[in-house]
Protein 1
Amino acid sequence: MDERLAKRFGKVLKLRRIDCGLSQEELAFNTDLHRTYISMLERGIRQPSLSTIFILAEGVGCERESLVKDTRVG
Amino acid sequence: MDERLAKRFGKVLKLRRIDCGLSQEELAFNTDLHRTYISMLERGIRQPSLSTIFILAEGVGCERESLVKDTRVG
């Protein structure tokens, strides 16, 4: 796993979630993902699969490619 | 795993790879991924993680978000 990439993605996700006014608990509830898993994603400890990327994008109300697009590396 | 999503992604990947004039073997070599894994991705049997999405996008010479953007569901 590319840790730097996961960390960048986590930051993007967190910013989007906060922009939406959602807590981790609320995003977890809306997406049927575990709150602990969302916390790990935001800290870059886990990285999402394709389907999780789609679920999260919907959860924070953005286009499916936005989270990937905003994850800049280097 | 969302099978339909994985199948759509696989089709997008395959089209891009063929557009680039690459065989599965060549894409595997360029990306350091296993040819069998690329075959499974293209058939929608496996779905990629975030870092694999980045690696594949680079391997087929497109923007990091393109493969996700082109994966339309429904």
Protein 2
Amino acid sequence: MVTLHHLEYSQSFRVLWLLEELDVDYELQLYNRDPETYLAPPEYKALSPTGAAPVITHGDLVLAESNAILEYLLDLYPSDELLPPAGSADRARHLFWFHASQGSMMTFMLMDSIFRIIEERVPFFLTPLVKAILGKASESVIHPRMGALLALAEEHLETQPWFGGDELSIADVSLSYPMESAAERGYITDEHPLSQDWLHRVYERPAFRSAKKKDGRESMVLPL
Amino acid sequence: MVTLHHLEYSQSFRVLWLLEELDVDYELQLYNRDPETYLAPPEYKALSPTGAAPVITHGDLVLAESNAILEYLLDLYPSDELLPPAGSADRARHLFWFHASQGSMMTFMLMDSIFRIIEERVPFFLTPLVKAILGKASESVIHPRMGALLALAEEHLETQPWFGGDELSIADVSLSYPMESAAERGYITDEHPLSQDWLHRVYERPAFRSAKKKDGRESMVLPL
């Protein structure tokens, strides 16, 4: 049986959601962040091969890295819907979004977080200067790249309801975290109605709701 | 037939390498960066769905995102060595590194690049201040996370020669770019002899050398 080591307000929520979609038996261990620093507790860092969430254990295996875990779970519990097989109509679309989720969108959302943390931590008299410098970097890198990804999302969601195609795939599961981050931070705007609709469809999945219940937090992403 | 649209000094070099490993027919189109700004040319940006490299075209399909392309090519030209199948001994190790490559290591290397660019572009009298601020962020985020990944790399390379396990897999192909970046920027040090050996093994692959020949550049990564 797989054990999910779930760190509150972290990328591991997606693994919880997938386990609920798969409707399989699993063990859930919940870890809280330090209330002051928001860091993972020392026992979580010791468990995780990379020091970061999510982590699953399965027999002797300790596996980290979100998309590796999602794919490994589909090895254990195969589904042609959640993972369109090679040669299927939705394959290329699924592959693109599954990899763009962690390889591009999460990268820019993490960069956005780090810029915000830097801005908060500098002495107050430096804040305007640092905001101006990082704002320029954000405008020249994060905004155009996120804008291109979200424009493409609108284009794709016009033809099929899920990033995986006609059915929800682990591309959608993976994207839920950076897309919720993008919505909370104002990257998803009125110009992205289909992305907003997609987020609502995600939140209304019965499996997503049971994952939420087990998680007990109001959002996936740490509220800012 | 697949066409690789290869932007010089970019992540698309890995796709070129994989096509050479697969030893299949393909078309290669080479694009140069702007010699002043190092940006991709407008025709490349117009072609790429995300505006970024790499991109392949295959019939009507235009596919971006490095790992999506590597996996798509393995759909077309299956290989149990380059992509250990579900249930095989090297599967979890392959999955971890394949996803950690773009989901973690590339993220930190991109962040490192952006910090360097910010430092270069601020007015000279601000450089020491900005270097101090970004240096602190780098020490608290990039260095510990890269350190954990490289320590894990050393541990894994002690038991098997490739990140994919006993044989080279697309995990290795994917990692070649962030690992070369990590070596050039001083993240891979004398504490990482097995990572250095791995890089040499990569550079000595006959397919890597033919890719280099077709590319014609002295490195994958833009020299700093």
